[in-house]
Amino acid sequence: MNPLGLIVLPVIGAAAAALGPARWAKWTAFVASLAVFALSVVVAVQFPEWRTGNYWPNTNEGGALKAFGVNMLLGGDSVNMLLLLLTTFMMPLTLAGSFTAVTEREREYYGWFMLLEAALMLAFLSRDLILFFVGYEFTLVPMYFLISIWGGQQRRAAAIKFFIFTFMGSIFTLAAAIYVAARAADASGAWDFSIAGLTKFGSESLSNREQFWVFLGLMAGFAIKTPVFPVHTWLPLAHDQAPTGGSVILAAVLLKLGTYGVYRLALPMAPAGAVELATFFGVLGVLAILVTAMVCWVQTDAKKLIAYSSVSHMGFVVMGLFAFNPIGMQGSVMYMVCHGLSTGALFLCIGMMYERFHTKEMDAMSGLARHMPIWSTFMVIFTLASVGLPGLNGFVGEFLCLMGTFVAEHDQPAGYPGVMGPWFAVVAGVGLILGAMYLLLLLGKIVWGPLKVPGAHDDPHEHAHGDKGHGGLPRDLSFREIAILVPIAAACLGIGVYPKIMLDVTEPSAANALVAFPEKVNAWNAAHGKTAPAKVALQAQEVSR
Amino acid sequence: MTPLLAQAGLTQGVTVALVLSAALFTIGLIGFLVRRNMILMFLCTELMLQAASIAFIAFGRMREDTGGQTFVIFILTVAAAEAALALGLVVLLYRRRETLSAEAWQELHE
Amino acid sequence: MTFAASMLAHSLTLAPGGGGDAAHASLADAPIVAATADPSLAWMGWVLALPAISAVLCALCAAFRVKNKLPAICTVLALGSAFALVLKLYLARGPGAAPVTVHLWDWMNFGWGGGPWKSFQADVSLYIDSLTLLWMLFVTGLGTLIALYASEYMEAERGPGYARFFFGVSVFLLAMSALVMADNLVLLYFGWEGVGLASYLLIGFYYRKPSAVAAAKKAFIMNRVGDLGLAVGIWLIWVNYGTVEFGALFQAFDDAARGVGGWDRSLIPFCLMLGAFGKSAQLPLFTWLPDAMEGPTPVSALIHAATMVTAGVYLIARMQPLFSLHPDAMATVGWIGALTALLAATIGMAQYDIKRVFAYSTISQLGYMFMGLGVGTAFGAAYHVFTHAFFKALLFLTAGAVMHGFAGQLDLRHLSGLRRVPGFRIVSWTMLIGCLWLSAFPYSAGFFSKDLILVQAMSSPRFQMLGWIGLGTAALTAYYTFRVWFRVCAGPVAYAPGDEDHGHDDPAHDAHGHAAHGDDAHGHDDHGGAFHPHAPRLAINSVLLLICAGAILAGVPGIQALRGEQNWVQEMVSNSSAVRAAGVDHVTEPVAFGMDPHKLVTVFGTGACLGGIAIALWIHLLDRRMADRLRTALLSNGLTRWLPTSMENKWYVDELYHALFRLPAWVTSHLLHFFDRHFIDGLLVNGLGRVPVAMGRLFQPLYNGALQGYAGTMAGGLVLVLAWVAWKWLGATGGAA
Amino acid sequence: MSPTPTFMNAPLMPWYIAAAIGAAGLLMVLRPGRAAMRRAGAVIGLAGFGLLLAESLKLAGPADQSISTPFMMAFAAVGVIGAVRVVTHPRPVFAAIYFILTVLAAAATFLVLDAEFLAFALIIVYAGAILITYLFVLMLAHQSPEDEIGHIGAEDYDRVPREPFVAVLLGFFLLASLGSAIERGPELARENAAAATARLAERKAEAAKSMPRLTVALPEGSNPSDAVSNVQMVGLDLVAKYPASLELAGVVLLMAMFGAVVLARRQIELGEDERRKAAGMGGMVLDVPEHERGGA
Description:
Chain B is mainly alpha-helical. In chain B, 76% of the residues lie in helices and 0% in strands. Among the domains of chain C are: 1-30 and 327-507 and 539-648, no CATH class; 658-703; 705-737. Chain C has helices at 2-13, 18-27, 45-63, 70-93, 130-153, 160-181, 185-203, 210-241, 246-258, 263-279, 288-291, 297-306, 311-318, 320-323, 327-349, 354-375, 378-405, 425-438, 445-459, 464-488, 507-513, 538-553, 556-562, 568-574, 597-622, 625-636, 642-648, 653-699, 707-733; strands at residues 36-37, 100-111, 119-128, 415-416, 494-495. In chain C, helix 4 runs parallel beside helix 6 (160-181).
């Protein structure tokens, strides 16, 4: 089974949607994305390396693009597969969610969407750095058009800011990657951009100083994409202005490109640099969690609130990644997937509401539980998933990320020392409280309270009579909309109840990503005077008893 | 100490040709910048093409390679084509504004 | 009266049994029996599954707009079956069996080597010992009864709201069962937050009332503060002991008792404590519970009186092996409990809303339980939890019946003489039982359980102060409890209907009658004519009687304990992880006033109870205007004015938290928002974006459309490149040449 | 010599100075009016150029018998004078004629540099065809041969140079950099003259083999490759080495011809209605801005 089909099929879908008749475009794209999902499921079922952390297919055949060390190497390990499935799962739902929202220039809209999927597939499937970068950067183009054509009032500004901001960071990422490749080429005599090879070279052969700069360069792009706290300001704007489908994919998948990059490239390629900068990024993660959570709390626009909450949530992922232990690492991979589901679904919900009322102002509405009970039910479910309620998906990732941070001390006996430690986790843990504060504020303002429907003039009960709401949509969710949200809700609940299925498959991959770390962390800690392994000795003694 | 140019096999004649080429190119550039007449600006670019041709010939002579001369033929071709098109355009522009001054078309910069 | 009290004390102190002493001595460092895995008990998983199924069915009922009582039937059946299962297990095992674990399925379970510190194992598995069973028995039993009660109480909501209510109850039972039966701290955390969710959903049941929404949010967020403490505690435990499973932890604690611990080990109980205080509404985090009374009354009875709020007690009892290693933590628990008990009682004295009075009494009684844990009698605490569950549920259910009958009227100034109102006789008399039990009337179950705690406190010189606080609180408790009963049930018949406005989920329902806002809460209320109280019917009355019987029977173990016989509550506690605090110290030498602790508590406890009741009788029944006069007198005196003012305003704790936390957070958030928008985004990001624009402006004159400008730039660039290249060569080879 | 030369101690310092002198002279020539000043400028400029030549000769190798240095220098001087006049002459027609002078000088240097074919091709194509076109167009454009003041045919925009100082400064830097390049550039080649000569002989022999007819009349004992002329070499190069480029050049010329024809066609100004009719859009309203409608 060649995963190339996963890239080609969306491209074909894009072409079919863009070239076919306008009234078929959405169905073409929807069917194509369903086919991609089916194909990805087939690939996932055939994927033999779920429990090993190996890449599959693991050939070194160059394929058609063999030039300058760029190989058409496709494949992935279990984490790639998870993110791939997340993408293909969310894509048909997102497209179906756009059926009534997008009524003009449909062919372009759905064409761009399928191209976006192709680019994402390429990014998640490539085992070659340049290929990854091509996919990574190409996502910007469809997204740029999606925002700037189908967006809100300030769509131009938002699209430009999104494009330039993220692109600017990516330049440094590319530069750092090419530096590593060039050094590797110097050493071996031939260019080779394979991620595995460069990772091995980078972690083993680069000096600490080089790794520091390489890591900083790689993070420049990934941190902006993630986004990490001070470079996050493109996200609320882009989310706010993007059409619903764009927001969903942006939150669900595009942001994961950043953290995936950290996970797959930045950390393993420059471990010494990562260790050197872990405290810095840990502080940024804490700031992201707290500051943006507080900013969320004073938002008046529902979509902006969720956009800021994305920044806050991605802060947990960053913390988990920089914990340098399997707990945090697996927690952040979990959280990537789970955040994609719950926040994507929240954007879908807000979009459905927006289609009916044409406003996202929280003060304009209230008590919709009475007006739209089904919608409210889903809203509550996804909000609670986002809050991190145990039993739903958000909890596992959040808990493990924070726990990973907590145990990331220099002398902890898990075999994976870290540089952060309890204080980071405790301070970031305040984010749990703040998260509940702003998300319940959202619920309290929109879902609960006395009924107030935007656009209804005097009598709030006027609309209770008609079955039809605004824009030809039913008052509450239509069957199509319910069918979109139910699979996501089921996935949220499923992951929350049985996360083992994901923890098992991320385990070996996380171990691979961490292989260089204990040694580097110990070296760093020793250089910073943190050598007393008192607790380790003590606990070893207790274990032996 | 052997003169630097001599080390590379540059004889006096070739050196003079290269200096001429440099001077012509520079003068052509200056001419392009100081002239306002569109036709003369084109003429100055021709001057720069001349300079390039001389350099080609000189280096070809230095390396005893006729490739330089062959290239000059192509330069001639390009110059001829350019002259035909550019002059056509200039005439067109002149008919619109009744002047050859390049500044008459300054508002095109948007 | 004094004579009677001393007689009582005499008769009760005759036999503080020697057997108890022996049993206690053997308990002091009794090992915790290691748990064994018992896959044959996998059917206990149904205790979790049944509420889950019921929740799903209720959700389906809501989705399909079922208008009948199907959700209630599902829930009652499911909870009843769960109770039957628990009972079956209890009968099969008896109170003294060794703990077992039942693995259901893997949950958060992964590792990088295996063994402590090399793996993280938090599965959905059950740890069943007698403490679990004790809790499960009253959780599922009371859950079933209260669900039955609610099936009638919530009738007016039939439709989606009805299903939503029973969905919440089912979710609560699921989460509470998981909390109590969890075999690891993370599953406990699941239950911990799950009950918080159920509480959130049910407090906000009448979601059209902004106050209910606010109360729900407040409850969830304050619980989250505690949950953070619990989470930090869990992490600390893993860091220090390498596991979060109770079985392994208890062994590790035993080892640790001999070993040395770092400073962070002694922090663990304080973190767990924070969680417990949040859930059980103790001193720093208690203000959510009174507000939670916005929920329907069965919810108040079940969640906010009988079961959920005792989760904190359960946690500390469960982690007793850890707490017993840290005397400071134990003392903190005791002091917090005692202070909360006193503070809540003072507030409860000045409230007019019946449910709020009972809410503060709940906080106060929970304070007693924590005091019991702190002074070292998990048995007393657990027993108090047990008795309190019955009599407090009873009180809330009677309050609910009143509320139900009088259109939401709960102000004790507008209700009087209910025992003479037709149909309210059972309510009045069961309420009297509840009040007597709450005020620890001698020979009531509440008396025995409170007695155990106070005796333990008095026995230890360290905690004697707590004992006195507890006794003082007991007097206040008796006063405010009977203040309610004398006001509401006794005296001449007089009442005014409330203005109850239940939210309805059913849109068709409000399609016709919302012009007159809120009077259709009870469709049969005769709004135009005289108000007729709506007497409770079979379900409510039978549940009241059943729980009343339970409350009376709950005293049996207390009598046994007094007589030194082994009683089943003590047996159950002593066969659990709380074994080290399963007994009560019986110091026989006098500690104060020449009396040994037991006699001291009996005499003073009885006195406090009777004194409180007497004062209540005087100023709230015999001379009702006396209370107002007293209040006016206190208010008119500048020196005492603070007392009623503060008590009525709940000691301004809400305002204090607002000023200390919410307001600064609000201001900071706005500042940060401003900072984010205008400094980070505006100045840094957009500013950086303007740099190229500004540079463009700088060079713009070159691009004014004149051809030469462009050419000049081009040439300039060419020159720069050429110069750079030449300079490089000059630098590289010029020296050598 | 210092291993890390700075600008001041660079070996090219005299070259820079010479270039500066030349630039100053050119600047003086460029200023309109003040004939004396311009003459002085011409002298200074020429002196600068002479200095340039002298300086470069110091660096250069020995004189080559086949290239006459004095001739080269004379032609160079003529070419530069012509070029300067192209740049400075106020009357476009004269400027074009001076350009012919430069072309002639360049052709002469070609001759000296053994590129006979190119020398004549240059004269024929440049001076004969291209420059005549320029002159033709110039004359077409300039209908006023004389005005009252006496500046014959000189429009203002021809008389007043545009930003001469900046332009000359730029030119100076360019020349200075070019000097460095001339001096240093050949080092990259690192090829001595002998090797080049040998290669030429080899190529000539090859050419001789491929053109046996031409070697028939050679006197006995002479090397057939000596008879291979410059024209033959260039021709062989064109058809044997760069045939594709040759074809492309043809295409370029063809396209240029098309372009010229199209541009010329546009000069037939039609009225708006006629244009519409021609475009088959008789009834439509076109929103054409005023200045777009042609200068008729």
